[in-house]
């Protein structure tokens, strides 16, 4: 018996990284899964590697209402319903701080980054809403350490993740008592997370940042260098309504303890 038997999920951005780890775990634990993924290569890989009787892939853009509606229709046509929406799309600003943000690119960069990191969540929830309400379902959004602390990106990325945190709070309120809405806030994780065209870093991938493992390990108390799989059980817990019927409006931190770094050790003092 799987932990998620009977669940039917839609995972946006399920083609790589954290979203892909969620897809793989959900399938292993008995869920049926639809995926909305923009990259044709990643969509093809999903189709080739995962069993067609439990996975349906929609290649499309989570910032488009039509593509979200198409993905919801693909899941419900294939599996009869939709109980769980996981939003795991995202793009990064590669730590571009305000002094380095080109004046003539801020507006475009804001639109591109907020479209993927924030607007897509609203569109995905809206597209899935009738199903989620009908099935007393759940929404799981992806925040980040950047939704809580400074320096996990530049001002564009950090403010976008604070906005997603706001969506968890507001949507949990608006959709009670029918739909539970929660989030997961991963810390630094080795993935393919990309930049954006307006900052000319859309070809950059987090996994190619020099000494990314050392950077991540050095800043969290547990000294973990997280891989996508390390977060996926947090998404499974939040999807399992029977195990967490009273949990809504909350965010699971999966970041090696960034909130408990403390001051003495940061200052190089022995406790
Ligand atoms: N990697 C980290 O260190 C880290 C830390 C905290 C939070 N996050 C968040 O985790 C989420 C997943 O990112 P990841 O690190 O796994 O990166 P990733 O690039 O491996 O995964 C994101 C996936 O979303 C897809 N995608 C991007 N834009 C899309 C769109 N408009 N429509 C549909 N699909 C789209 C990408 O092709 C990719 O498959 C993001 O929200 C990211 O901000 C990442």
UniProtKB/TrEMBL annotation:
Enzyme class: oxidoreductase
Superkingdom in the source lineage: Bacteria
Entry keyword set: Oxidoreductase
Stored Pfam families: adh_short
Keyword Oxidoreductase: yes
E.C. number(s) listed in UniProt: 1.3.1.87
GO molecular function, one term: 2,3-dihydroxy-2,3-dihydro-phenylpropionate dehydrogenase activity
SUPFAM superfamilies, sorted: NAD(P)-binding Rossmann-fold domains (SSF51735)
InterPro entries for this protein: NAD(P)-bd_dom_sf (IPR036291), Sc_DH/Rdtase_CS (IPR020904), SDR_fam (IPR002347)
Family: Belongs to the short-chain dehydrogenases/reductases (SDR) family.
Protein name: 3-(Cis-5,6-dihydroxycyclohexa-1, 3-dien-1-yl)propanoate dehydrogenase
Organism: Amycolatopsis acidiphila
């Amino acid at each position: 018996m799987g932990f998620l038997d009977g669940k039917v999920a839609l995972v946006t951005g399920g083609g790589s990284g954290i979203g892909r780890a969620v897809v793989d775990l959900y399938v292993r634990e008995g869920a049926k899964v639809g995926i909305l993924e923009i990259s044709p290569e990643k969509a093809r890989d999903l189709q080739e590697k995962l069993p067609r009787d439990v996975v349906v892939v929609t290649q499309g853009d989570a910032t488009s209402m039509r593509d979200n509606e198409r993905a919801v229709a693909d899941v419900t046509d294939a599996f009869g319903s939709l109980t769980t929406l996981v939003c795991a799309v995202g793009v990064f600003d590669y730590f571009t701080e305000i002094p380095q943000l080109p004046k003539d690119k801020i507006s475009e960069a804001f639109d591109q980054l907020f479209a993927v990191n924030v607007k897509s969540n609203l569109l995905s929830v809206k597209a899935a809403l009738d199903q989620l309400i009908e099935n007393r379902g759940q929404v799981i959004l992806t925040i980040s350490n950047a939704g809580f602390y400074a320096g996990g990106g530049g001002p564009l990325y950090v403010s976008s993740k604070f906005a997603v945190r706001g969506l968890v709070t507001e949507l949990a309120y608006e959709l009670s008592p029918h739909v539970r809405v929660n989030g997961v806030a991963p810390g630094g994780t080795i993935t393919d997370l990309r930049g954006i065209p307006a900052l000319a870093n859309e070809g950059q991938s987090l996994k190619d940042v020099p000494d990314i493992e050392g950077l991540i390990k050095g800043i969290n108390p547990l000294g973990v260098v997280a891989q996508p799989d390390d977060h996926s059980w947090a998404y499974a817990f939040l999807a399992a309504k029977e195990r967490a019927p009273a949990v809504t409006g909350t965010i699971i931190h999966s970041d090696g303890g960034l909130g408990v770094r403390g001051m003495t050790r940061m200052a190089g003092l022995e406790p």
